[in-house]
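Entry 12.
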Amino acid sequence: MAKSRVPLSFDVIGSREKAVAIVHIPEELKGREKDIAYSIMEKNKRVKSVLEKLGEREGKFRLRKYRLLVGDEDMEVIHKEYGYMLKLDPQKVYFSPREATERQRIASQVKDGEVVIVMFSGVAPYAIAIAKNSGVEKIITVEINPVAVSYARANIRMNKLSQKIVVVEGDVRTVCEQWYEVCDRVVMPLPKGAGNFLDIAVKCVKPTGGIIHFYSWGRKPDLFEDAELEIHNGLAKMDRKYEIISRRVVLPYSPATYKICIEFKVAAR
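Predicted 3D structure (tokens):
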């Protein structure tokens, strides 16, 4: 297959021993899926399976439908990044290898002695990145997908971080009450619908104030306008003052849409 007919980019999840490639096949290449998959495996010897994306992420577990093009049906891998390991099956849990740098960026901001809650935490990549790279006191992870929770617990044990990370299974809206007014920092890495949980995030912040990392989809021409309005309206309803401290484009999603992060400081009561 000609090199020009291989998609220019695809995600690889896993290690040198075993990895899974995830690819989007453009419409003009339909019918050549297996040729593309074999070409990917030929050029990347660690890739043992190639999955084709079949749609957007959907449902409360944020899962995407895939089709196995070629390779091993067992797609559980151990993904390595920045000195820690993450076991997962990309068919069963949400995970983005493209956010490794963003995870490190968040970890670098966490100060010694902080208590952090990570909502929609998946297999615990943000929590593990923070625990490995900061002097955090405690991290609470909240995830509704029971398979992701199982992987999170395994990953925390594998990285020897059980003393720092607490795993909570359930819906953010129903299980976070015990963490109200406890946290210095809230991480909300779910871009779709995170605004529906802003009130819970603010309630988790200490009475003395704290930082919220709010993720959303940004669309051209103003990538941050909708998310800023959502934050403004959400905190106005709670009569809480805040200050935006940074705006950041995290990843491109489509030609006109990007995953963005707005970080803001909730003022003391």
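Annotation: The chain has a mean pLDDT of 93. The radius of gyration is 19 Å.
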